[in-house]
Amino acid sequence: MYYLGIDVGSTTSKAVVINEKKEIMAKEILIAGIGTDGAERVYQKILEQIPAEQIAKITATGYGRKLFAKADTEISELSCHAKGVFHTFPETRTIIDIGGQDAKVLLLNDKGRMVNFVMNDKCAAGTGRFLDVMANILHLQIGDLQEEYFKSTMPITISNTCTVFAESEVISQLANGKDKADVIAGICISVANRVASLAKRVGIKEKVCMSGGVARNQGVRDAMAKKLEMDILFSPDAQYMGALGAAIYSLEEME
Amino acid sequence: MSRLRELLNQFEEVANSPRKQLDKYLAEGKKVVGTVPVYTPEELIHSMGFVPFGVWGADVEIKDAKAYYPSFICSILQSILELGIHGAYRGLQAIVIPSLCDSLKSLGQNWKYAVKDDILFIPMTYPQNRENEVGRAFTKASYERVKADLENHLQGHFCDQQLQKSLDIYNEHNRLMRQLSLKLSEHDQITAYERRNIFKSAHFMLKEEHNELVAEFLKELDNLEKSTKKTRVITTGILADSPNLLAIFDDNNMTIVGDDIAHESRQYRTDAVNGETALDKLVDKFANMGCCSVLFDKDRKRADLIRDMAKERKADGVVVLMTKFCDPEEFDYVCIKNTLDEAGIANVITEIDRQMVNYEQTKTTLETFKEMLR
Fold it and tell me: Model ipTM?
């Protein structure tokens, strides 16, 4: 039998199917989160690979978890991220999860049990949304930011923590003739600084792993590693960690 | 319907219909005086023949009050002013506004300019140092000011024997509310929302009337089988009022086994007992109060109180309900968190305010906290 986890986030829907050995058998992602049919569509894409009757249990997570009616159970995304990351990197003690519209820091013990956590306030600063807004100003795809980050020789400083004010600040910097790469590096560093401050509130313990969509941005990861002065664990499946954790919950609850 | 259920319905009705309650007292020919958070000398007001009526604002959209306040200020005060501007408190003879935090100090000033209804503003100025001789003299002088305003403008009459009778009623109310908090810690059938209704209704009723209801409720509670199956939490903060917020506790099978909420149990910790005259006893009460973010305490004993309460009531964790932009609470939080962490008591913080409609982030926070406590 197989076990499904669906993570309905603010901007994307992710699904992961595992087998009894907790191996990933299928995974899907759609840029369609809460308020869309993203969860249903991502589920249908999974069914193209795994027949519904072979899925023993479905666990939903993410901000839209309560809206996915096909789920047998639901678990908060923090618990699922903890589960997914610890399964992938058992040496992890701190998880920095930056999603589309919020950031969270989780502290784990050596059994993978979450012992503390903190979420950012209702603010887009230090989240994927912040990067989206900035990429839009610069007429770049979000994926292009990391390439520009590494070209920078003198990153600018973004003093505003508010996305709206920071947007004006970036426009001013560009108007003053600052190099695009330096502006982008400043943006990535700004995200890292803000979330690192959040992380310090729960107390950082090595090893640190980044999950969530923003973790895919190598520029932010690099800036975070420099800010925290430690290596950052990262999986190419960073965005799937919540869905993976949900799938593991499905399996464990059946056991 | 059981008597217990009837009483719970009665508390709910009063808690959710302050206007109806105010109109009832006005129809009875009573004079009503608004009392603003966090502490006012209610006993004094009560003894002079007025109905003290809690004015803690409400969950409303704040529009016109913003002309008098920046947006980053306590939403409780903003909502009080908003409601005042729109006539929600019409019928009050006066409003007593204490000076216990910087934001409260500005509420009195703004009230005078913004509220057009004929509601007398009476300031209640408290000293920073409550316990020493000078502090006590200051408190007494401030009480005298409230007394004089009620006498001169509203024809109230002060008599020390009458104040003693009010002190007796209020001391009894304190005792009942403390007992209530303790007994509810053994009866998780009573939901967080129902608990809030009992505490909130106290602000809109004469205490002698509330005493009768609470005493009867406590007797009914004795007949109810004890139940402690839910996740046990202590709440701390200024306010835990929104039904949407409290539904999150109930939906997650959490029960509030004790609180350090200013709107709830902080009101009932200290009795007025010692002093030559009844007024001296009221002064002594304020001198002995503490463990509250707006009452200066160099030793910050509030954190110890929360820790000890959590241990005594066998709480699984503490939920800090941080009112946005409340700097006294934010200052205390560091000490509370450190103390709880050192004691190994799980704790979590979530921000709330009077303008919140969507509690999604709090929902995730409390759900995760519950999962963490498993």
Answer: 0.80
